Amino acid sequence: MLQRRKSxxxxxxxxxxxxxxxxxxxxxxxxxxxxxxxxxxxRLFDDPDFQAALxxxxxxxxxxxxxxxxxxxxxxxxxxxPSQPDALAQGIVALHATALAIETPPPEEAADAAQSxxxxxxxxxxxxxxxxxxxxxxxLLAEAPLFATLPIHADQRIGEAPYIRGAxxxxxxxxxxxxxxxxxxxxxxxxLVAAG
Length: 196
Fold this sequence. Notes:
The protein is 71% helix and 0% strand.
């Protein structure tokens, strides 16, 4: 069977990471709410107040998941450019900014989207300075907003945090696996440094 050639196109890489961040947020939040609502799913999902809370949670989780997937991408690409880490970081920051612009947030989320753009360079720098850890142990930026905004009351999710956290991490790990399957790290790192 023919293997698809791995891409080293930065624009394709950025678009892939943006789609994955959206998937991580959607899948984690909606699957949990569906399971939790059970037979009341239709009634709950038709409720305008729930829909508004769900949209807010998805956006908050998405903005943080977008930072997470770009931080992971940076860690994956960095060994390819040990002599030019700053140039690679600039390329990752630029790709993140482009990815963030793909989806226009609703007006009520616009300020947080702008804050995500400003915060990402610092988040990336902090992760680079922290000790290297395997992905399954890496702190995820999406975890805090996910738990803070889930539209299921905290009293209704007692004891369920490990399952919610596990679902989030599973989708993040799957993102890295798909990234490694689709993209050429050496070519990507070189293209990002050259573009900077």
